[in-house]
Predict the structure of ABC-2 type transport system ATP-binding protein.
Amino acid sequence: MALVEARQLTKVFRRPDKPPGLAGALRHLATRRYVEKVAVDHVDLSIEAGEAVAYVGPNGAGKSTTVKLLSGILQPTSGEVRIGGLVPQDDRMAVAHRIGVLFGQRTQLWWDLPVADSLAVLRDLYGVDEGTYRKRLKRFDEVLGLDDLMAVTGRKLSLGQRMRADLAAALVHGPEVVYLDEPTIGLDLSVKDRVREFFRELRDEGTTVMLTSHDLADIEGFCRRLVIIDEGRIVFDGDLEAVKDEFARDRILHVHTETRVDPDRVRAVLPGAVVAAGESPLWHSIRFDRFAITAGQAVAAVTGIAAVVDFRIDEPGIEDVIRRVYSGELRLAAETDAETDSEPDVEGSGEPDAVVTAP
Ligand SMILES: Nc1ncnc2c1ncn2[C@@H]1O[C@H](COP(=O)(O)OP(=O)(O)OP(=O)(O)O)[C@@H](O)[C@H]1O
């Protein structure tokens, strides 16, 4: 069994449908109407020990709600979660020792206590021995510059300082599973780099990490697996590099030549490339499939036609793929099949095959 297991996990929020104003409030008292929001919709998710998983989706997709369900903060409407075989909603204390949660938008530090006291309370709550605690604090200080913050009360921390202290609070008990929900929001670039390095160390030590972020730089180079949620449903679950290879194949060479270049001559030597005018008559942009044409071949092709003054190459990014999934341009193969094919998939193993297709 995987370390983190969600089966058909569903959360429906119900909120009062109150017309505005006093009259509306009175009418609501009489009629009591509610609107329902399915925030997480029959999510199946298995995370093996030691995996680093990126969990991304547009605003309101259901990411934070999933994290709250997986950590036992919220009760599911239906479906279930197991962490190491335990149900977090039922075995709160046992599971709390095994997981760490960081919400970038919310603090778990005590507002009126200095950071040192907040961390000490957590140390005692989790029963961390003094030697281990000191070692962890030293490490947090090395990566997060924690010492400077220890005497500052929660309410006086800037956003970036608060995030660093909150990270320490989430990890003080050495959890084996860590959920990081927007962990670099509001951090300046140098702190972001340090925090990302820290995450890589955690992963390399075997900690299981689920990372939610709108900043895809948090994800690239850190998570091998990408899960995309949209409107509460998982629309993609697979290997991040494989997605890039499949759907972010193009590179663009922007090239500045000494004399004008006839685009047809470039097309003739680079079959399949798309040649367009650049920012000035002496600049061209050449889009090519990086698996069919190497960057060297593309540059050499232009050099054979005119002297090259300058060039740069734009690499494909996961941003572009994710943007296309969000916009509906790319969809899960399984979804497409379901719409066009009513036959059950008799051979299907039930495992997501990590395929996205253009509709
Ligand atoms: N306590 C709540 N009561 C009612 N609706 C809620 C509650 N919490 C979340 N929702 C709704 O559930 C949906 C999913 O919210 P959630 O916070 O999980 O999204 P998210 O993917 O984390 O979004 P973001 O990227 O903006 O943080 C949203 O429509 C949100 O308004």
Observations:
- The pocket of adenosine-5'-triphosphate is lined by residues 13, 15, 37, 39, 57, 59-65 (CB under 6 Å).
- The domain at 4-239 is CATH 3.40.50.300 (Rossmann fold).
- The chain has two domains: 4-239, 249-314.
- The first strand starts at residue 4 and ends at 16.
